[in-house]
Amino acid sequence: MRIVVVGGAGTIGRRLVPALRSHDHEVVVAGRTSGDIHVDLTSRETIEALYREVGEIDGVVCIAAHGALDEFGTLTSDALYDNMQAKFFGQVDLVLTGQHYCTDGASFTLTSGIFADQPWPHVTGGGVISGALHSFVLSAAIELSPRMRINVISPTMVGDSTDAFAEHFPGMRPVPMDELVHHYLRSIEGEDTGRVIRAYG
Q1: pLDDT tens for each residue of 67-80
Q2: Which of 38, 74, 82, 172 has the fewest CB atoms in 10 Å of its CB?
Q3: CATH of segment(s) 2-199
Q4: Going edge to edge, which strands form the sheet with 2-6?
Q5: Annotated domain spans of the chain
Q6: Name one GO molecular function term (predicted).
């Protein structure tokens, strides 16, 4: 399959892209400032340009964009909206636009996070975004062309990022990278659709 991995140069991508290539998939890495092609998830125009440039695609994976930490006492609806631009609306645009460019049997694999199910301090935005992504995937699964599929991977803190994030989420058990990659491969290569795949370690 020919697969676009948005955010493929990041923490998860550094493990997922080689795994996809080892399964004989052709991988196009996209990112805001890195990869084979550039795309800004806050810009619908660049998302459409991505699809026009890469041509026929059998799978789209998004592992880009992190939600910002927030302080509830000073949080505003404007700040929430800004936080949602790439992580929620960008991933949604990858699907809404991509359905018109991808092959008939293409799959979309999005990325949410554990905060949709487990509240933690300073991640109200992350919880809202992840919960919204779960709802979007459930709806999109019954609205897309019958042969297209869509799933979302919802990871906890990932194993390769514990040094950067463990201080913010003390006691959170990370998901091992090989387990996380397996979940992505299952979504991309399997037959499931409308699934929220919880990778909580």
Answers
A1: 788 999 999 999 99
A2: 74
A3: 3.40.50.720
A4: 37-38, 26-31, 2-6, 59-62, 107-111, 149-155, 195-199
A5: 2-199
A6: oxidoreductase activity
